[in-house]
Design brief:
- By secondary structure, this protein is of the alpha+beta class.
- Helices cover about 25% and strands about 35% of the residues.
- The chain is built from four helices and eleven strands, in the order H-H-E-H-E-E-E-E-E-E-E-E-E-E-H.
- Strands 1-11-10-9-6 form a five-stranded mixed sheet. It has a four-stranded mixed sheet with strand order 3-2-4-8.
- Strand 10 and strand 11 form a beta hairpin.
C-alpha cells in the first residue's frame, strides 16, 4: 500500500473501481481491496470492501501452500459460470476476514474456513493463484474476462 500511495496508483485503482468496470485482485491484490491489514504492522488498504487481513494463527504450517478445494457460497455469481467446485493453488500467510457475508463468494478449508473468492458489484478478488490452478483457474479468469467485454 505504501508503494501504491507513493506512486498515486491507489487513487487510480479507486477511481477505476468507481467507474463500474470489472476489477480483479489476485493474492496480495485481493488483500489490498480490503480496509485494513496487520501484515508488517497495522495498515489501511484500498477499502473497496470492508474487512481485514489477518495472519494465520494456530499450530499448523504457515505459509499455507498447496491445493485446496473451493466451496462456493454464491454459485450464481457469473465468476462461476460453467465451473464445478474443485481444487486451486494457494500460497499465503495472511487471509481476509470480510465484514459482510454477502461479499464472500467461495471459501477453502485450511484448519478453518479461508476466504478464497470475494465479490461485490464489479470488484472481485481471488486469494489463490488462478494462473497456477489448472483448468479451474483458467475458467475463472475466462469468466472474469467475459465480464470485461
Amino acid at each position: 500500500m505504501e508503494q501504491l500511495r507513493d506512486s498515486g496508483l491507489n487513487d487510480v485503482v479507486i477511481r477505476y473501481a468507481a467507474s463500474g468496470k470489472p476489477l480483479l485482485g489476485i493474492c496480495l491484490g485481493m488483500q489490498l481491496l480490503f480496509a485494513s491489514s496487520e501484515e508488517h504492522g497495522d495498515h489501511e488498504g484500498l477499502a473497496l470492501l470492508p474487512g481485514s487481513v489477518v495472519r494465520f494463527r494456530g499450530d499448523y504450517k504457515v505459509p499455507h501452500m498447496g491445493w485446496n478445494r473451493l466451496s462456493y457460497k454464491k454459485s450464481e455469481s457469473p465468476i462461476f459460470q460453467g465451473i464445478e467446485e474443485g481444487h486451486v493453488y494457494f500460497v499465503h500467510s495472511y487471509h481476509v476476514k470480510p465484514e459482510r457475508e454477502s461479499d464472500l463468494l467461495a471459501v477453502a478449508d485450511y484448519y478453518q474456513p479461508v476466504t478464497a473468492i470475494v465479490g461485490k458489484d464489479n470488484v472481485y478478488g481471488m486469494q489463490f493463484h488462478p494462473e497456477k490452478s489448472g483448468d479451474i483457474g483458467v475458467q475463472l479468469l475466462n469468466n472474469f474476462l467475459k465480464m470485461c467485454k
